[in-house]
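== Polypeptide entry ==
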Amino acid sequence: MRSGEIILSIVLLCIPGTASASDLRQIGMVNLPGAPGFGQLAFANGVLLLAHPGAAAVDVFSPTLRRDVAEIVGLTSPRAITVDEQAGKVYIADHGSKSIVVVSTDGWKVIGSIPLPSPPDALLLEGAGKLYWTDAEDGAIALLDLHTRQTIGTVDIGGPARNLAFDPARHLVFATVQDLHQIVALDSQLRIVDRFNLQGSQPTGLAYDPQYGELYVAVRGAVLAIRADTGAEIDRVQAPEGVDALWLDPSSHTLYAASEGSLLVMSAKGKLTAVETITPEVKGHTVAFDAAEHLVLLPGGREGKSKLLILQPVNAAQAGAAETRDARAR
C-alpha cells in the first residue's frame, strides 16, 4: 500500500470577485497514487472510498488519519461504488472488465466478481439484494439479483444514464439521461413511470432530498432543483461546466458540486441558493462531505499528479477549537 504524503497548510480561500473570507479553509492536501481521474465516491466504516480509474484502483482514505489506509487493486477501470454497510460489502463497477467487483470492508480485500454482459457505469443498491447498474454504451439500466448473481431485467431508456438516485418512500429509481436532456423515473420492476424534460443540456450529477421531495441535477452551466413528483423546475443556480456528481449533506441541507478549478457550495433548504464558489488548489469533478469529521474532500489533479484536497468549514474548525479549550480548562 502506498500512503499519501500529507502537505499541511492552513489557507483561507476567498470567494472570487470579493474580499471576504470563505466559509471553507484548506487544512491539508494529500498525494494519491496514479494519474488524475476519479469516479464515484462513497463512505464505509468511516473511510472514504474513491473510484480511481487513473490508478486502476479504489483508494481507501481515512479522514481521521489524513492518509490512505488501503488500496483495492487488480481493477481495470473502476467507475462507481456502492456500499452495503450491514453486510460489510462494497460493490465496484469495473467498466473495463465488465464486472461488479465485491470487496469486504474487513481488510478491504476482493472476495468475488460478478460478470456482466456489458460494461457497468453507475450503481445503486436497493436493500440487501438488488443492485441497479447502468450501461451507458447501450443506453440501458439493468437490475442484478445479488443472491443469484444474475441480471434479472433490463430497460432501454434511450440514452446514456450518467447517475442514479433513489426515492425509498415510493421505491423509485431516477436516472439522468444525458443525450435526451431528461431524468427518467423507474419503478422496482424497471418500468418507466415518468420522464422529466430539463431546461438544460447534458445532465450528469443527481441527488434526491427526501425531506423536500426534490431532485438536484447538474446540467451544463447550472444546477437545477426540480420536484420529484412532477419534474417542475423550482430553482436553478449558475454552476461551472463539467460537474460530474453532486453531494448532498442531509443534516445541513448543503449541496456540493465540483468542476475544473471550481467548488460550488449551495444551500438546499426548500430553496436552492448559491452560498459561495471557491477556486481550490486541485482540479476535480467530484466531491464528498464527511459529516462525522466535518470535512469537504475534493479529489483531483494538480501538475499532472493525483491529489486529495481537505477543506473544513470555518464554523466547524472554531467549534473544534472551543472544545479543545474547554477540555484543557477542565
